[in-house]
Write a structure and sequence with these properties.
Oligomer: single chain
Radius of gyration: 21 Å
Largest sheet: none
Strand content: under 5%
Structural class: mainly alpha
Length: 399
């Protein structure tokens, strides 16, 4: 449902928008948040800045792929369950297919040109996230208390570098907001609303827990695709922070049993850096190269589905609870504090890992600044920023 003009969208509309995002959202999980904000708040007005921040806080708090959970939630708000499914498929399918095909092409990207192109994609993330942080801070941190919360949140996260700290920061932001934002200048006049009740939430929690408890036993007795489903479901259910944080769990799940060699695992990880879309799509590559009688596409599909499923079950269960809580008068101040620390979370991610891994020289900084100007000053599409950063990174290698 369009929360700015009251109109309900269609699953087909969601499919088209998220397919564009799935094809163009380079730079990793944090950069995706900037792409979503640019496309769905600034260009289309599907949600307000406050709704976006609330959804992001929920996704940061839960295990699973935060950017994909956010996309799933935005699709759910826009067009119900079909919209959520459309958002997931459209955002994930391009990267999943590319990763299945990329195993054959990876050796061609081992040269200096390929490495420069991949580095240019990392610089894209720097420009996109910087634009998102600035835009969100203007609206969500309009006064000294909330600016202080954002700065402190960023400082704590930069110092700790732990995914668990994000959860604690979100909780602390809610408490600080309740204490110090008694009369926030941006009240929660646009709550997150979904057509789900508390009963549905408990059913989803029960399904999540049942799969987590039952799949290991079935995997031991049945093997085959059930073992594959169990390995990827556990990885998706137990990782906080998403993105690169899931790699150690995946390595333990597929390299440990001998399904995938260490060399092929690392090759796929390298490929995942060069494509748009969610990092969790790495599961499609792993499923495609794992030994299975079910075939490449079937195993890859099971791997992807069970990798994302636990995060989607949890965020779907949490939204009705959040909807109930956010309507309480005392929750308005807490939500203002949560919104503020979300800005700090993005600010910390802008520094590490984005800035620290992408800006290695003055030239890189110049490329990132021009990309930021393309978004903030000239209001160009992020796709042009992708083109600029890649071309500007590759040209010095060619000349």
């Amino acid at each position: 449902m369009d929360r700015l003009n009251g109109e309900k969208g269609s699953a087909l509309e969601v499919l088209g928008v998220f397919l564009k995002l799935g094809l163009t959202s380079f730079g990793g999980p944090v950069a995706h948040l900037g792409y979503f904000r640019k496309e769905l708040i600034e260009r289309r007005g599907w949600v307000t800045e406050s709704q976006f921040s609330q959804l992001l806080a929920i996704c940061q708090f839960l295990p699973g792929p935060a950017s994909s959970q956010l996309g799933f939630s935005l699709g759910l708000l826009r067009a119900g369950w079909l919209g959520a499914l459309a958002a997931f498929l459209a955002f994930t399918l391009p990267s999943a297919l590319l990763l299945i095909a990329f195993a054959e092409l990876l050796p061609n990207l081992s040269g200096p040109v390929g490495k420069a192109a991949i580095h240019g994609l990392k610089i894209v993330a720097c420009a996109v996230v910087a634009d998102a942080v600035l835009g969100m801070s203007t609206k969500l941190c309009p006064d000294p208390p909330r600016r202080t919360m954002a700065v402190l949140a960023a400082a704590v996260l930069v110092a700790s570098g732990s995914a668990w700290t994000q959860v604690l920061v979100v909780i602390a932001g809610g408490i600080a907001g309740w204490l110090f934002c008694r009369e926030p200048s941006t009240p929660n006049d646009s709550p997150v609303e979904v057509d789900l009740g508390r009963r549905s939430a408990w059913v989803l929690v029960a399904l999540f827990s049942t799969l987590l408890l039952v799949l290991p036993g079935l995997a031991q007795s049945q093997g085959g695709l059930i073992a594959v489903a169990d390995a990827f479901y556990r990885a998706g259910a137990l990782v906080f922070g998403g993105g690169h944080v899931v790699l150690p769990l995946l390595e333990e799940s597929v390299v440990g049993p001998g399904w995938v060699s260490q060399e092929r695992f690392l090759a796929g990880y390298g490929a995942a850096q060069a494509i748009p879309g969610p990092m969790f799509s790495f599961s499609a590559y792993l499923g495609a190269i794992m030994p299975s009688d079910a075939g490449i596409l079937t195993t890859a599909a099971v791997s992807v589905a069970f990798m994302f499923l636990p995060g989607f079950l949890l965020v779907s269960a949490t939204l009705p609870i959040w909807q109930m809580i956010s309507r309480q008068p005392k929750a308005v101040s807490a939500i203002a504090g949560v919104n503020a620390v979300v800005v700090g979370i993005l600010g910390a991610a802008l520094y590490d890992p984005i800035f620290t891994s992408s800006v290695r020289s003055g030239v890189d900084m110049a490329i990132a600044l021009v990309g930021f100007g393309m978004l903030r000053i000239w209001r160009l599409s992020p796709l042009w920023v992708v083109v600029w950063c890649v071309v500007a990174s590759v040209v010095p290698v060619l000349v």
